[in-house]
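Re: weekly structure request thread

Next one in the queue (329 aa):
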Amino acid sequence: MKTFRAYRTEEINGEFVNSIKNIDKSTLESDEVIIKVAYSGINYKDYLSSIGNKGITRNYPHTPGVDVSGCVVSDKTNTFNVGDEVVVMGNDLGMNHDGGFAEYISVPSAWVLAKVGRFTLQETMQIGTSGFTAALGIKKMLQSGLKPSDGAIVVSGATGGVGVWGVQMLSKLGFEVWAMTGKAEAATMLEALGAKRVLGRDEVLAPLEKPLLRPKWAGALDTVGGVTLASLLKQTSKSGSVATCGNVGGMDLPITVLPFILNGINLLGINAADTPMEIRKEVWALLGEIAEPSKVAGFCNEISLEQVDDALSQMGKSGHIGRFTIKVE
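Done, posted below.
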């Protein structure tokens, strides 16, 4: 076949339209490594790209998909062999470089990482950018000195992709995990992942006028941002650590400097997309030790390319639980 299928976002008369297109395979030859995609995953950046957010994707038509697992078809650099199982995540994949919502991708060799042996291609993408982001945040929290004996860790947005993996992996490490969610119906599932408590939003959110509150937890993995992040920081114990990666709750941080200069709180930023390759390898090694896909399987919704429209719509409305993985092959 001279073409392959791809889910494309096009700008037509000022509006952004999504559809599955047949793309000429000759377009793959410009980059170093060609990969036959087995699975991709849907992340919030993909939703933003699909609706024409120029802060994510500058030029259209475009194929979203910031993460991929699959097999090498060819490699001009001879770094990988044909048939090698690999993963590609972040860098500019799916943002300004055609991404994983397609049967094939071509990328620079420096973006490609050998798959961790204990995971299948399917499990690798169930983890995907979401699990990687959670593990990167956990790695930073551990490096800050946080340990299970310090107290509870809150995971905000606990039913999202990053949140689900955060609950599972922090629990695996022995932390007492408190899962924050606005979806009370997910409480039983979160407890099965290892959450000791499931908190409603009202149990976390703090009055804006209060610069500090009584400490309730040793740290947090925050996927929300905004008022939620500020509330978590105000109630973190002295020398505690809060890692953050999200802004669905807003990009502003309504807080004073007091949690930092009086309580010595560590605010740890997570930038998964630009993680250097050596750190990526370390994070995947950590995932190999603490990620348990079988426990998270109930939160992973496997779909086809034809079902991507509906999944993106659910993500835009925050109406989903867990992570969508696309079976492409």
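The two ends are 14 Å apart (CA to CA). The CA atoms of residues 47 and 316 lie 7 Å apart.
Next request, please.
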